[in-house]
Task: inverse folding
């Protein structure tokens, strides 16, 4: 065993020997005193990153967790390790490549280098490595780097997603509610049309599509309300969402066009809901009431609950209209839409149940701020969705949560 390898082995053993800081201090002292160990330290870091991938984690998951539990120097360090480890692979799955590209842009926006003495740097290294080593296995949502990647791009799909993304960005940026409603409605119309077209195309061509999965971060504060909003968006787009509250993400299961719709729509509605909450708070303060946590919690819970009802009604209306058109074309070689969608629903449910056999459902209680609930419901009613002019009870159901541990 080389001196450098021995130094790193002893440092890691010391850090792992206790949950208190003494072990990390001992290990950091060993690394700081041996500059020849630096290359081995980095090699071990990339090895721990690879171990995280093999346990089901992805770059965005790891960075999110490091940012939540540690500090900015740890984030910069893990970003560098992820980038270095990623150079080993010629091709990446699309979602994986997108996460790496986003991480690279984020780091380029902070060009200043992390500066610290050797002991402080070694302490940061060991704290990060302890987190990586202790990551448990989670449900994989895609191939690990190096696995064969089979891409089957759909003609025109990137252009459609670019158009949807642009519409939602304009809806988030405009200061005019009517314009935001129109832009969001158009984006949702394109999402629904694209999803249904893909389902019919897959059925006609026997393409053999199967459900996939992706993870979406659910960050504090008010993570319960955010998870419920994501569950509502997922359900409206024929997907299933399972929230892992311990690690701050939800796993969404569905067919690829629907997963893309969920990611785009959830992000936009969350941005719009947060902006609406800020405006409502300003009105409350103008009336003499101080900002409170209960107001925000109640606002976002009401916003998520009401949007769930409206999205469910909108999906039902869009499906009925598309089914009528598909049935009218059946004699010309088209297939009935409803059986196609039903088969996809069954496939998504089966994949989700196999991935998460031990999920539990929960009902959220403790919403205590009447003004927050009222304002949140009103904000959701102003978030126009296709078919939103219909009246009815709508549907609401508890979210699915994966038990921690």
Result:
């Amino acid at each position: 065993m080389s001196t450098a390898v021995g130094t790193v082995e002893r440092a890691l053993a010391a850090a792992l020997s206790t949950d208190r800081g003494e072990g990390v201090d001992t290990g950091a002292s060993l690394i700081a005193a041996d500059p020849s160990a630096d290359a081995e330290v980095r090699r071990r870091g990339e090895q721990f990153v690879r171990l995280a991938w093999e346990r089901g984690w992805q770059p965005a998951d790891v960075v999110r967790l490091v940012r939540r539990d540690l500090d900015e120097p740890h984030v910069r360090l893990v970003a560098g390790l992820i980038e270095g480890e990623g150079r080993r692979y010629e091709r990446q799955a699309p979602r994986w490549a997108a996460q790496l590209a986003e991480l690279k842009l984020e780091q380029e926006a902070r060009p200043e280098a992390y500066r610290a003495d050797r002991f402080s740097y070694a302490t940061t290294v060991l704290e990060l490595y302890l987190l990586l080593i202790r990551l448990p296995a989670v449900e994989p949502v895609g191939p690990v780097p190096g696995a064969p990647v089979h891409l089957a791009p759909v003609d025109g799909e990137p252009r459609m997603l670019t158009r949807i993304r642009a519409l939602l960005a304009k809806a988030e940026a405009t200061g005019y509610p009517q314009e935001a409603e129109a832009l969001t409605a158009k984006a949702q119309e394109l999402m629904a049309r694209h999803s249904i077209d893909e389902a019919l195309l897959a059925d006609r061509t026997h393409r053999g599509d199967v459900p996939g999965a992706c993870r979406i971060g659910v960050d504090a504060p008010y993570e319960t309300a955010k998870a419920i909003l994501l569950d509502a968006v997922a359900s409206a787009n024929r997907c299933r969402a399972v929230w892992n509250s311990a690690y701050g993400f939800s796993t969404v299961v569905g067919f690829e066009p629907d997963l893309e719709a969920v990611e785009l729509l959830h992000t936009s509605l969350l941005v719009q809901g947060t902006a609406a909450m800020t405006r409502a708070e300003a009105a409350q303060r103008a009336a003499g009431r101080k900002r409170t946590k209960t107001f925000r919690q109640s606002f976002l819970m009401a916003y998520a609950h009401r949007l769930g009802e409206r999205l469910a009604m909108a999906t039902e209306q869009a499906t009925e209209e598309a089914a009528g058109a598909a049935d009218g074309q059946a004699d010309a070689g088209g297939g009935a839409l409803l059986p196609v969608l039903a088969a996809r629903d069954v496939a998504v449910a089966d994949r989700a149940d196999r991935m998460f056999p031990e999920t539990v459902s929960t009902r959220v209680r403790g919403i205590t701020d009447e003004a927050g609930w009222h304002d949140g419901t009103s904000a959701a009613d102003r978030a126009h969705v296709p078919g939103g002019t219909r009246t009815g009870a709508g549907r609401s159901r508890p979210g699915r949560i994966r038990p921690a541990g």
